[in-house]
UniProtKB/TrEMBL annotation:
Transmembrane segments: none annotated. GO terms for molecular function: cyclic-guanylate-specific phosphodiesterase activity. Keywords: Signal. SMART domains: EAL, GGDEF, PBPb. It comes from Halomonas shengliensis. Pfam families: EAL, GGDEF, NMT1, SBP_bac_3. Residues 483-727 form the EAL domain. The keyword Signal applies. Residues 1-27 form the signal peptide. SUPFAM superfamilies: EAL domain-like (SSF141868), Nucleotide cyclase (SSF55073), Periplasmic binding protein-like II (SSF53850). NCBIfam families: GGDEF. This is Diguanylate cyclase (GGDEF) domain-containing protein. Residues 335-474 form the GGDEF domain.
Amino acid sequence: MHLPCRPALTTAALLALLIAASPTAVGEEVVRIGVYHNPPKLHLGEDGEPGGIFGDLAVALAEENGWRLAPVTCAWQECLALLEAGELDLMPDVAWTAARAERFAFHQEPVLHSWSQLYHEPALEIEGIQDLAGRRIAVLEGSMQQRALARMLESFGIEAELVALPSFQESFASVQQGTTDAVVSNHLYGGWQAPRYGLTASPIMFEPSRLFFAAPPGRHAALLERIDAQLLRWKRQPGSPYHQALERWRSGEGGHPVPRWLRWALIGSFALMGLAMLGNLTLRRRVRDHLAAIRQVREDNRRLTLYDSLTGLPNRRHLMEQLHRRLATPPAAHGYTALLQIDLDRFKRVNDTRSHREGDELLFQLSEQFEAALGGTTTFLAHLGADEFAVLVDGLGQRADQAAQRVERLGERLLSAVVAAQTPEVADLGITGSIGVSLFDGEATAPETVLQQADMAVGQAKAAGGNRLRFFDDAVQAAVNRQVRLEADLRRALQRDELRLFYQVQVDEDGEVSGREALLRWAHPQQGMVSPGEFIPLAEETGLIVPIGRWVVETACRRLAAWTRDPALADQAISVNVSPVQFSEGTFVSELREILAATGAPPRRLVLEVTESLLMQNPECVSQRLSELRELGVRLALDDFGTGYSSLNYLKRLSLHELKIDASFVAGIPFEPADMAIVDTTLTLANRLGLEVTAEGVETEEQHRWLQARGCRRFQGFLFGRPEPLA
């Protein structure tokens, strides 16, 4: 079958295909593997075997599984074309993307994590993305780096020439030869090769990626499953082929292939001494085998010392070592950490009424369920012995209340995992879990104290009936309880008609009311008015902001429709804040269209306010959605301008009508020169871009006059009126 536009097979590729087609040993599976030059991750050694991190792993996988590798050397784009056409069985060092997932099959466990970095001559000063303007940058043709850098340059409005070359070698050489100014590659290749070309690494790093072995689409599922199984096993085994490959090639031990002429010269020289050294080599081999046996014994002893034999998880001693290392790190580096101790409720019933084998099986199933529940979080799971487990969770942020909320949700998943792990034979015994949490930031804390606090909190959880989580710190526990109750109440707030819209007037330069901003309030039946700063972040975190935001927009539109019948109010607009979570919903635009049609509200009187942080989430998608909203006729405003990204490039490209100067800058008028300079610059910028400006937080006449003198025409703040409900 003729495949159009397919690269021609290289001589090495044809040889590999002929080898693959030839008879092989019984039971031996031939795997055609693509190899391109990208050390230290991948290259073809002088012995014809794949080298580098991926190459060493491929050889080790082949030995484990009884494969015979048939390497096919090819350029990067050629390798991918061969793989897609089914003329390769496996291609190492392929970064996963959604587009590639449609072209190739991937296994699940990443081999490596990488990122892209820019390298340049030391004499050239490149400190940031803006320094790339007007430069020629070498990139690997068809690579992720090429596409990602192009998107990044476009988003910042920077014009630079990307020179696509077929290999990293040619790319780095082009900088050395002066035909390009800089080169982009993965950080592993760059760190390996940049010194050889006299280049230095820049601070510009981007496009983190996960690297895998890839197979032709829809094929070799069993082969990929075996790769996953081996990777998962090797990653948990210090000294495995996986860790040996990382240590060898990241440390530079892997080196570069010896030229063929030098290799034969060395072989000829050493052949003269071969007979004399034969006895010595035999002795050395015996010593080496003996040392390897000693190392294996040491490794086995280490595993027995640090890992639990039943579950394969780290044990109590290993956990204490992790705690020591964590507490030795300055708190500012990672914020809060939590130790969760999990103790099974009524586990003794399994051993007493069933068997110890059933009990061991339950503990093993629990370890797997806990690992699945933890997912991609930064955690360390350990089996402390008997029916006790522990989880060390790092990177919980700098605020204790937010850290506690994250731990609470993680605890819920772990409690659910206890139920999910139970087989039908023990499901009727009522086994649950009790979790005790010690939350700490590393200051004046000993590992033994942390473990003791978590153990005491487990006792509190059991005393409360089990199947629950308790914090050692009573103040944190009370705050978590309040958040849980608040979330439960918030879920019912819409049904109970507890939400309210207050309106704050916006005035023009003549002091006439030109519009109002709708501000959400919650009239809690027991706690009174709950601060928006407390319940809105909770609504965003739980997703409740979507139905709540829909209610806000619909209520505001009904108000606008009613105003059309009152000549005194018909020209006034209503501004509504839109959460990034709500804005990202795929149905947001269509639902708004339906609300406008159902209420009869004039679209031109509805102003949707979005924040600067939203613009950075997905610039292309945000720009498209803003254009769709503008087509509906609604007005668009950028809220709290100056507190976020504040990219002038974005302001030029987005379909905005107005900016709102954040109240924090207005508060500094007329005493803070920095705030006044920001406001003055914003007004000048908006005037040049044809955008209206509303100054928020105006509280004094002095601020009002200063803003008027500099061309501001719309104002909002306590000077003109506080937020209040309308009849």
